[in-house]
Write a structure and sequence with these properties.
With 270 residues, this protein is of the alpha/beta class. The chain is built from twelve helices and eight strands.
């Protein structure tokens, strides 16, 4: 069983550790965690998942089969420089750092197998929509192992690295957009007399049901919408307002702005 060292112990690291241990994909005894300064978070991970804290134990890095880079982007270069002398050449690097390219990681860790992953915060409940890419040094067996790890927190798509910008805009940032819609729908329903609790419960169930209909995959979203939209009915009245207020243009602008920002942030670390 692979020995995994997490460099960084924030929310995404915890989500992955939770998935790995909950799904019994990796034994907690094979999971090691180090962090720059937040000892309280490290102790939380140790208590919750029975993983090992190894901040000062460089031996953990020399023996690691997989090293997960899970620090903040602003800390990435310093952290990579700090651990580079200790990582063995066979270890596979998995980076969940937004915006930091494989080339940038290579320039600080050297030529080695490196994968970049863009998960989202739904990893905390095992429902992340993750995308992964890798360099030519990642073996087929390692690719399968990486996918196996990521499946512990949700679904996985293999993409080209260039596509991670739009993946970031769609899936990485996507939960925030849906939470924004939830806020507005709830507020509108409350304005018309529903309680906040009832409005939220109804909207959550509506999203879950619509997601399951989409997930079946046998009917296009546009056709599903048409099936709900009776001529002259309430849904048609609502959709007409979405069209009049150019919600489609807002969505295009949203994705465009987010993926452009991803590119800008990435260039900061080149």
């Amino acid at each position: 069983m692979s020995k995994i060292v997490f460099v960084g112990a924030g929310a995404m690291a915890e989500a992955i550790i939770n998935g790995l241990t909950k799904e019994e994909k990796v034994s907690p005894t094979h999971i090691h965690v180090m962090n720059k300064s937040d000892m309280e978070q490290l102790e939380h991970l140790k208590r919750s998942y029975n993983v090992r804290i190894v901040c000062e134990e460089k031996k953990a890095l020399t023996e690691a089969d997989i090293v997960v880079l899970a620090m903040k982007p602003k800390d990435a270069i310093e952290a990579c420089n700090g651990i580079a002398p200790y990582i063995n050449k066979e270890a596979v690097i998995i980076s969940v750092i937004a915006g930091v390219s494989i080339q940038t990681i290579t320039s600080h860790l050297g030529e080695r197998p490196i994968a970049r992953v863009m998960p989202n915060t739904s990893a905390a409940v095992g429902l992340s929509a993750s995308a992964v890419c890798w360099n030519a040094l990642v073996s087929q067996d390692s690719k399968l192992e990486i996918i196996h790890i990521l499946e512990a927190i949700g679904s996985v798509k293999v993409v080209e690295e260039e596509d991670l910008h739009v993946v970031t805009a769609l899936a990485g940032s996507g939960p925030a957009y849906l939470y924004y819609f939830a806020e507005q729908f709830e507020a509108a329903a409350v304005q018309h007399g529903l309680t906040s609790a009832d409005a939220r419960q109804l909207f959550i169930q509506t999203m879950e049901g619509a997601a399951q209909m989409l997930k079946k995959g046998d009917v296009e979203p546009s056709e599903l919408r048409r099936k709900v939209t009776s001529p002259g009915g309430t849904t048609e009245a609502g959709v007409e307002q979405l069209v009049q207020h150019k919600v489609n243009e807002a969505i295009f602008a949203c994705i465009d702005a987010a993926q452009n920002k991803s590119r800008v942030l990435g260039k900061q670390y080149e």
